[in-house]
Batch of 2 targets.
Target 1
Amino acid sequence: MRQYKTFSYRLFNLFVNLVMLTSLLLCLTPFVYMIALSLSSPKAIINNEVFLWPKGFNLESYKQIFTYPNFFHAYGNTLFYTFAGSAISLGLMVLFAYPLSKSKLRGQKTLMKLVIFSMFFTGGLIPNYLLVSSLHLVNTRWAMLLPFAINQFNLILLINFFRSIPNDLEEAAIIDGLDYFGILIRIILPLSGAALATVGLYTAVFFWNDWFNGLIYLKSSQFPVMLFLRNIVTGTSMVGDAAGSGDKTTIAISIKSAVIITSTLPIIVLYPFLQRYFVKGVMIGAVKG
Amino acid sequence: MKRPDSADQTITTRKYLARYWQLYLMIVLPLLYFIIFKYVPMVGNVLAFRRYRPGMGAWGTEWVGLTYFRRFFEDPAFWRAFRNTLVLSLLNLVVNFPIPIIFAILVNEVRHLAFKKVVQTVSYMPRFISTVVVIAILGELLSPSSGIVNLFRMKVLGQKAIYFMNDTTFFRLIYILVDTWQYTGWTAIIYLAAITAIPQDLYEAATIDGANKSQQILYITIPSIMPTIMVMLILNVGRLLSLGFEKVLLMYTPDNSMVSDIIDTLVYRTGLANQNYSYATAIGLFSGIIGIILVAGSNSLSKRLTGDGIY
């Protein structure tokens, strides 16, 4: 392998590493900038002195946002939607996916067609809205939890995973006298940790990030934190008291950044530890059933 | 008890159910859910052909035929949204289809394994950040008074600040670049998996024959992942009408509406903001039907060309 020493090889290597370094910086810089802004003093921000390192370091904006009842509520709401939504979603999807993973079960093919068709043709915004409102779910937290409880992509991911579990295990369990609920709970689920983690994470991220359903269905006390943030950005809601000073906009910048960071922090912090599950989903999902 | 298998074809329904009733019981709740939340709204599309009157139910009151379709076909706002949707989608496809492929090829060439891992991990992350957060950060970066992009223009280049987020000339560019930022790393996973599956001896043989890196990429890597590229391309064409609605809605301002009003935002505004439910349903149904034709068409094309489809 003489090639490793040639000039053109080194040039190529340099080019590859430069591109990678640039991509790395492009992905991270926006967050570093937001962190720097949120930790800087209003004076430094108004003088445009802040870039990637905080100037006039202080935690004032973080202290402030947690005194705003709106933000505090919204954050709590998001936590609730994420946990409740993921629990409902996983429960329904597991119950659906297990029978659907048995390709010889009568009716299974029809049900699969039903699921797949609904991935390509949907009711659309207005019929969905009218459904939720005729079920009297508008202005209730259910409007956030129910309409997207089953995601067809995640469902198929689970079905594919259940299919990959060897049949022998199930046959042995049947001989031992277990019924299908018993098999699902005691054999299939314990073996599906990775798939459940993957689907659970996708679902949790969906609920954590969802704001549009909140916008069309909920009243302000039920808003999730993403909708709260969106309303600050569009100026439709005030962050807190205007503080009565001339540098309102700069206060708003550090506060906005603090809201951005706090509402994204759980994902950024947990992401490195959980990313292998996120990626696994693409791989399981790519194996077609 | 036995598992469902071909021998069961012969047994009676009663016996079959006695054996497998629990599996059917499991299905009941999710199926009910599925019918209510996925299929009832699908049927709810009949509203496009019926007049909606407030307080008289979600299904409308009387049949009006194609009235609403005729109305939006004559509406310049619809055609503007239709054109905006197509232009934005096509531009996005042209830019953001090749980028993940190039990125995957380059990531694969990184020799330092720890660095490679870090790059990959970090590049997937934007996919999991809320669009609200992405657009909020963007708003701060591009702000005319305090954003770093404009500070650079004013202080270093001595130019005037531009209100990027309100500017019709920049809307499409910004949308597309944000898409690049959000999805490049994530989409590259699929190509990376295809690249990893290429047999290493192909490269070894090429090296012995004196092929350099760029020749190896051009004559081994790219042809080997061509089937994956084709399937992805066809999938993308099938999704041509479904843009990132939430992102466009977050970037939408009355000032940039000339280019930022797409079909989905038009449906949202006429339907939910102005409560023209039937009219908006008709527009939504029309774009839904074009969407399904595109998917079905591109899928059969994919099957013919690559022997592989998405369903």
Target 2
Amino acid sequence: MDGIVSVLQFATDGVSQQQQATANNLANSETPGYTAQDVSFEASLQQAIDASAGGTATLTVSPDPSAPASDGNNVQTSTQLVDGQEETLHYQTDVEMLNAQFRLISGAAGGSFS
Amino acid sequence: MSLFSNLSVSGSGIGAAQAWLDTIAGNIANMNDVTPTSEATYGEQAPVLVPSATPGQIGDGVTVAAVVQGDTTGVIASDPSSPLADAQGDVRVPDIQLGAQMVDLIQAQTDYQANTSAFADAKTAYQSALTLGK
């Protein structure tokens, strides 16, 4: 993993995948027997950043461990809605930081810093 | 996986909630149906929802696989004034409880709203992605 841009690029993609999982969980909130999906990449990305020789971050899709209701569905609508908002803000933050990085590069290349 | 695919995932959820709302509306509209005891009556309808997913990957939303009709036996009610009544003055009416339908209605509505919220989240995120490099 080299460079802040590639770290942010991976994070932006990861958050987008998390958002898809959340949207999918909400779409299936009434599907009998459906198990919610969790997507995580943060720990793996952190490890890749920490690895001195440069590591590879991965994205993991895992089933949500919470107990299912009587129809076998374990989607908690409230949790998913909160996750959805959180992921959107997270995404915007990542995009903002990428833009800041691009402004620095553009400034250093003789362009404008704003 | 298409561009802006998160929007279509929520779109499928909205579609499923809409299908559910439609069946509930149909059930309530047919609550007071009357048929002769020799015939079947209206059976409560419900959508069959299945996840649309490739194993091991993040799901692609939900699909309405079918709309099933429940028990058409209904219940026998006494209504001698009905022109459809048999010799005993009985008719067949659907076995639909308004209370249960209203509970389903609220659930379907909440489901719809939750999907709309996820749709808005995806839209906001994609819009911010479009500012990259500006």
